[in-house]
Amino acid sequence: PEKAVAAMARQAPESLAELNRLIQRSEPLVPGATQAVLGEGPEGAAIAIVGEQPGDQEDREGRPFVGPAGQLLTAALEEAGIDRGGLYLTNAVKHFKFVQRGKRRIHQSPTAGEVKHYRWWLMTELGFVRPRLVVTLGATAALALTGRPVAVLRERGPMAFDGWNGFVTVHPSYLLRLPGEEERRRAQAEFVADLRRASALA
Ligand code: URA
């Protein structure tokens, strides 16, 4: 991976479009993904939202946050009064990683080493987008931006990332996994409150 990072840096893309071509042409670190899922949204967006990695549906469609977690995110943004189209949405890792169980492809979280491998791309991408605020969803994205393990439930809120004003919150897939209806509703309300608070900081 270190060698791969050095090789990518030598490619020094001069635009987001050029960076995206490099990402599209790259092999997944772990084989299996259909395609790289690129970031989406306007350059110069005030807020960039960074997720973990594309899921099953994102891998098929080639767009970030279109599956169940993405739909929850979209609904939460709407509830917080934030226009999804005005945001830049991307992921710490650009390829879906999974294990096959029968017909189902079960998501596997990226390792710290995999996050590090993809980090140069993410940082270069954010350098082109230049958001005023970077919002991380969940532990993987927070790790990508800080370089350390982050306990998102304890540390949620504003956080200075290296070179960026940041905001840490939970991942929507965590909200989908909460067992009780009541608990899920409360956690979703807290997520919406986080998005509102982040938006006020941008
Ligand atoms: N979860 C993520 O972190 N990113 C996506 O694009 C979809 C689901």
Care to describe what's here?
The chain is built from nine helices and seven strands; from the N terminus they run ααβααβββαβααββαα. By secondary structure, the protein is of the alpha/beta class. The chain has one domain (2-201): Uracil-DNA Glycosylase, subunit E (3-Layer(aba) Sandwich), CATH 3.40.470.10. The protein has a five-stranded mixed β-sheet, with helices on both faces. A two-stranded antiparallel ribbon has the order 3-4. Helix 1 (2-11) runs parallel beside helix 5 (112-129), helix 2 (16-25) runs antiparallel to helix 5 and helix 5 (112-129) crosses helix 6. It is globular and about 50 Å long. The mean pLDDT is 95. Bound molecules: uracil (URA). This is Type-4 uracil-DNA glycosylase. It comes from Azospirillum aestuarii.
The overall number of domains is: 1
Low-confidence stretches: none
Would you list the SSEs in sequence order as H and E? HHEHHEEEHEHHEEHH
Q: Determine and state the CATH class.
A: Alpha Beta
Reported CATH architecture: 3-Layer(aba) Sandwich
Strand arrangement within the widest β-sheet reads 2-1-5-7-6
Spatial shape: globular
**Terminal-residue CA separation:** 34 Å
The share of residues in helices is: 40-55%
Which assembly state applies to the chains in this document? single chain
- The CATH superfamily is identified as Uracil-DNA glycosylase-like domain
What ligands does this structure carry? uracil
Strand content: 15-25%
How much is the radius of gyration in Å? 16 Å
Number of DSSP-assigned strands: 7
How many helices? The count is 9
Q: What is the residue-mean pLDDT, rounded to a whole number? A: 95
* Largest β-sheet summary: 5 strands, mixed
